[in-house]
Amino acid sequence: MGFLSNGHHEKVLVLKIVMVVVAMVSSTAFGAGNFHEAFEPTFGGHRVQISGQRSEQLSLSLDQGSGSGFRSKKEYMFGRIDMQMKLVGGNSAGTVTTLYLSSDQSTGRHDEIDFEFLGNVTGQPYTLHTNVFSQGEGNREQQFHLWFDPTINFHTYSIVWNQKLIMFLVDETPIRVFRNYEDRGIIFFPKNQPQRIYASLWNADDWATQGGLVKTDWSKAPFNAYYRNFNIDTSNNGSWKNHDLNENSRKRMRWVQKNYMVYDYCSDWKRFSQAFPPECKHSRV
Ligand SMILES: *[C@@H]1O[C@H](CO)[C@@H](O)[C@H](O)[C@H]1NC(C)=O
Ligand SMILES: *[C@@H]1O[C@H](CO)[C@@H](O)[C@H](O)[C@H]1NC(C)=O
To answer: Quick one: which of 15, 38, 35 has its CA closest to 26?
Structure first.
């Protein structure tokens, strides 16, 4: 009896130590926000530049030869990512700056969670385009203008991704919540495939600027966008796990959606004249 229960306790102790070590490794690995450690370039060669004492800053540039981009070395299954970004200033029409999560795209059934910043001519507002893909299907766009000029200072853009929801935040203000409604029989939610973090700056003047009407002004190239002070929290004890709206943040989100939302797929009657995507009938945010 005594022997058995000692063995059992030993196993439990070993298991606990293993769990603690795993939690420490996953929560401290990239907490310092070092771009060299956590990320690798995807395209654009020298147009991806890392700087700062702790490699905590990164710039992307775009010229007529190419755009540029980077991605995380690791894949993540849920978590929270925060990134400070400063967008292309002046005439940025035709440029698109991104921060997104994506699973392996070669499967043809990939998951994705997007922030895409569509540039504009000088003095006109950027459009922040958001979307969610599950198993290769997207069509869940919401677009916003911002309540500040995103090209003057750094602002923090965050994605919280847990079992229950995806939350998009700008400077801690939630602008969009996309919920997992599987309890209501709706299966559209990314939750079966790990995702990497991606960022890029590229030319999209064939669609981004009012359907391709305004072309990128290459006389202003190179265009630059800046990233810094990222944080990736996938720790088991992280508050991202149960992150949800509270009374105050729900109020803030309603304020943004009322005053700054410029497109919502759930109110696009023309596009979905046959039937709206199923989650649209749930107004619970
Ligand atoms: C979570 O655990 C890590 C160590 O594993 C610790 O450094 C961190 O402060 C903890 N965070 C919270 C929110 O308790
Ligand atoms: C550019 O600004 C115009 C005028 O405010 C606006 O209607 C349009 O949506 C903006 N375009 C983009 C791509 O943000």
So the answer is: 38
Ligand nearest to the CA of residue 29, numbered in listed order: 1
CA–CA separation, 233 and 245 (whole Å): 18
Residue given tokens 């967008």 in the structure block:
87
Q: In what order do the strands lie in the sheet with 155-161?
A: 48-51, 57-62, 223-233, 79-86, 155-161, 165-170, 173-179
Per-residue pLDDT of the chain (285 residues; tens, 9 = 90+): 333 444 445 544 444 444 444 444 444 333 459 999 999 999 999 999 999 999 999 999 999 999 999 999 999 999 999 999 999 999 999 999 999 999 999 989 999 999 999 999 999 999 999 999 999 999 999 999 999 999 999 999 999 999 999 999 999 999 999 999 999 999 999 999 999 999 999 999 887 677 777 899 999 999 999 999 999 999 999 999 999 999 999 999 999 999 999 999 999 999 999 999 999 998 656
120 C-beta closer than 6 A to ligand 2: yes
Cα 147 to averaged position of ligand 2 atoms, centre (Å): 14
For the CA of 235, the nearest atom of ligand 1 = 1
**Is there a contact between 186 and 278 (Cβ–Cβ < 8 Å)?**
yes
Q: Which residues contact 258 (CB under 8 A, 6 or more apart)?
A: none
Domain 8-282 in CATH 3.30.428.10: no
Report whether residue 124 contacts ligand 2, using a CB cutoff of 6 Å: yes
Closest residue to atom 14 of ligand 1, CA basis: 237
Atom of ligand 1 nearest to the CA of 238: 13
Count of C-beta atoms within a 10 Å radius of residue 280: 15
CA atoms of 138 and 27, how far apart (whole Å) = 30
